[in-house]
User: Fold these one by one.
Assistant:
Number 1:
Amino acid sequence: MNVLLLGASGLVGRECLALLLAHPQVQHIHVWLRRALTVEELLGQVLTPDELARVPLSRLHVRVVDFDHLDELAQQSPELFQVDAAVCALGSTIRQAGSQAAFRLVDHVYPLAVARLVKAHGARHFLLVSALGASATSRVFYNRVKGEVELAIASLSFASFTVARPSLLLGRRREFRLGEWLMARLACLVPMPWTPVHVRQVARGLDSALHHAAPGRRILDNQALRSHSAARVTLPPASL
């Protein structure tokens, strides 16, 4: 399998990358970034020499991409878009992006542009990290953008389209978020459909869907995602 991963530097994307690296059936993993990162930065951990030796770098292809000029890139290097599946874990917040327009660019424009291009080059499966409450008719801007991009990608008619809709994400972030810290500690009081979910559970849900692609559109709701293990992903021996 030849897989494209977007958003590998984020919480969910980082765990998706670890799972892809650990799966020997994934022959090529194409990671597109907006800025250069080391393997350790991508995996979000400091690796010992033994651990680094186990990273199958021959299967990992990292490229810095200008997402504002994807059409030009497709014309110049169409082979970059010739993948079996694409996993999109791109995501931001309005605060991080700086404005609603910048947020829409990252969470709607870029994912849709990539989806259109990989579909045109033969991809059969697109997997998207969305959010609990995503709806194109929502009065909440964040949820509305998530719902709109879901519908837009669904209209492309991939053979398989998987959407993960997690609640609050638990994991080790680079920046402190008070609201998430409080929610994590009050998780036992939150109704089950909205209970926070660990990023590893989201990644494992996507990974399972990737290797067991169902035809048509599949929604992985928060409860389905929470059914997966939150155990840390370990790389196989170097011989694999």
Number 2:
Amino acid sequence: MTENDLLKLLEEVRTGALVPARAVERLKNLPFEDLDFAKVDHHRALRQGFAEVVFGKGKTAQQVALIVKALLGREKDISKGRQNILVTRADTKMFAAVKRVVGRNNGTAKFHALSGAITIERNQKISGKGTIVVVSAGTSDIPVAEEALLTARLMGNRVEHLYDVGVAGIHRLLKHSEELMKARVIICVAGMEGALPSVVGGLVAVPVIAVPTSVGYGASFGGVAALLGMLNSCASNVTVVNIDNGFGAARVAACINRL
């Protein structure tokens, strides 16, 4: 449920188009629906601007499917199916289970193998004021970058990407200086030593959200080296999210892009 959905519901009651008992029926599972193994937050869009996102890792395929079914059912009843749905860190078994519960009238479920995300896109409205640019240092960082890109796009933003433009060949990045300067927010994804966000931050006057990845050799410590390098960036417009957290970076970028 979004703020507009709630206002519409109240207006229908005010005009008599909807009897109060039916309004209560629509709202009875709010603010959350208890599935025993999960409490699905139907108020998330109302509070934060986007529906609850499902983190797939650690859940069974059936659990993911039932959560998605709950989101679809409640949004169909209240908000006429306008919210996009996103499952991160999913696999093909989860996708098969989700496809079975989506049906014909709830949008098309897609599995994005590179990022391991499942999307059900039912609303292509752009609410972000500018463009979010997702930059990856190397090709091996693209899965995390793709998670960020998909998340930002489903949350109503114009998104562009620049891939494999790391500091080992800095001319590849500098060729795209104009695109970087036109961005309203930049998500910068890098592993190894995590140097790229500092370079990007020094070129632009907008927020740079750095995402360290677990890509690298032994002394990278599964992304800790990149994380520490980014936290110590000398570019003052750089902030950092957790290792491999493309979703978190995109969520923050979407908030900034709405301001």
Number 3:
Amino acid sequence: MDAQIKGSTMPILEMLLDPGESLISTHGELSWMSTNMQLTQTTSAGGTKGVMSGLKRMVGGGGLFVTKYEPLGGQGMIAFAAKLPGRIFPIDIAPGQGFLVHRHGWVCGTDGIVPTVGLQQTFRGGLYGQDGFILQKLEGTGRAWIELSGEITTYELAAGQSLLVHPGHVGLFEDRVSFTIQRLKGISNMAFGGDGYHLVNLTGPGNVWLQSLTVPGLAHAVAPYLGGDDHPAAAAGVGGVLGGMIGKNL
């Protein structure tokens, strides 16, 4: 299997698969492929089988089924394009070692990867009008490819060292890193701070990958260019576009 990441700000992951090799991903990740690639839908991933495994993926923001890609009659090609400016990069997963990734961060993986639920915590008041902080957990054996938005910053937290992170900037971290949702203190911070009501407390030991670009931040930046706010139709259009973007990517 040969993987190439092409481009810069909107990268493309291009995979060449030999006969007998396969990839899995959530549905809807495919961008293009050669004509000899075969797609099948399955609830099995990394040796786990059954509807229960699919239900766990759904709770983690994935789907009931995963898509399996296999070449027929020779080498095949498949490509996955980034959905937002940022980076696509690989992580290697071994038995007893897992990673937690934000809801839409997992692009694809080798057939030994097991995607499941990491956490879904709800918090009253929500964040960006949403009602939860959802992560996927990747475990098993093999290689997975991750998409994070904007610039990527990594931290290696020592045992007991903590970092408070805005939920939208949490990209990926090792499952040995513990985490809790922490409510901002102070009525003025909550009402006028503009940073949401909650932060994620990440505590080491372990590695953490944070992303600089959040979908709500991008939506806020482009909102003034989508039409005049004083026109009802334009305002409704802006609300619909931003609501759709935020709802699909949190």
Number 4:
Amino acid sequence: MIDMGSHTAEFTPPIIQTEDLTRVYQRGHSEVHALRGLSITIKAGEFVALMGASGSGKSTLLHLIGCLDTPTSGKYRLAGREVSTLTKNERAHLRNQLIGFIFQNFNLLPRFSALENVSLPLQYRRAPGDVRRKAEQALEHVGLTQRIHHLPSELSGGESQRVAIARALVADPALILADEPTGNLDSATGKDIMRLLTGLCQEGRTILLVTHDTQISAHAQRTLYMRDGQIVTDGG
């Protein structure tokens, strides 16, 4: 994780910085302009919500920030490193080192226990050390010590999302990208998940959360609103 303990804000580079970012998709003979000259800055340790109607460009932006896609033009720096010119393998390495993902549908492997699901990122990275112990610690961090051997089918929606959060945390990422993490949960469970994410931000992690729910976005320190591939309002 990025060391923020000994640096003041003025010397710490933004963890996310985009300049005039565009993304154009070819659809037959037509072009779809998903992002139109988008520029944002998110500091290390911030909790930022991203809102907008379907088709506003939220998912495209999240994919670019998550190093899953590349822009058509413009610049993107992640923790001070220019991402736009990296190769696919270089982006994958940077993504594995710095980013944890949380999805609306949990994306847990159904035949794997909670512990096995959380261990996967470390196994993919061939991370040194005791993989099992690190996975157990991540599950303990989200309050699931007693459920580590349960399959996803044996877990509630809230427990499944906690497993997904533990999986995102296990490699100690500096940045967490959460795509509608409470979308499949009831309101009470959703509040529990948001308290958990807020606590992670207080520990020093940066969180970018996509949501349609203003009650969920209220947990963030500021909110970015998207329309037609652009930021139209910054609530910060």
